[in-house]
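Usage

Read records sequentially. Each one opens with the input sequence:
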Amino acid sequence: MIESTDRTPLPRDFFDRPVLEVAPDLLGRTLVRLTDDGPIELRLTEVEAYAGEADPGSHAYRGRTARNAVMFGPPGHAYVYFTYGMWHCLNLVCGPEGFASGVLLRAGEVRVGQDLARKRRLSARYDKELAKGPARLATALDVDRTLDGTDACAGPDSPLSVLTGTPIPPDQVLTGPRTGVGGDGATHPWRFWIDGDSTVSPYRAHTPRRRRA
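and closes with the structure output:
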């Protein structure tokens, strides 16, 4: 039996804080995705923080572009990017407007709408694998670039929203290097996850890609 969770929407003030405060505080919260086929709800279990122009690992490190413009906007909005020509990833913008920080949603436990998520994640052998990794999470929730800029604080009719859920006590939160980040940002311990949760994705260090001749 799944315990009762707080369904109060998180206000914009929640996201209008430093990214290293928001990121671990998102663990245990409920992400709601309203699709044309019905709602999907996910309990967040793993996230990563990215600190904009102060962070070599961030898409905003070299300033504003058409791709990352949402990161410079108001907190509480979704930043969705397309990577490796195949996958989408979902982030939540936080911090003061203009500072471009955000939290990558890396993994979660699908608690409502499992059947809808399974249709999109046919390769998942078990439900714990439905959103085990940022690309899998976005796929399970039917997230693509059309949701870039969505206001997750706009109310219950928004395609994306975040509910209070059940926050995780600090002593159950682990932290370590971000997955796949190289260079000067490789050692930042800005990945946060729930200790012992089976939906958390495996850590992988950055592997430099070779240029083709």
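Summary fields computed downstream for this record:
- The longest strand covers residues 38-50.
- Strands lie at 6-9, 30-35, 38-50, 78-83, 87-94, 101-112, 160-165, 173-176, 191-194.
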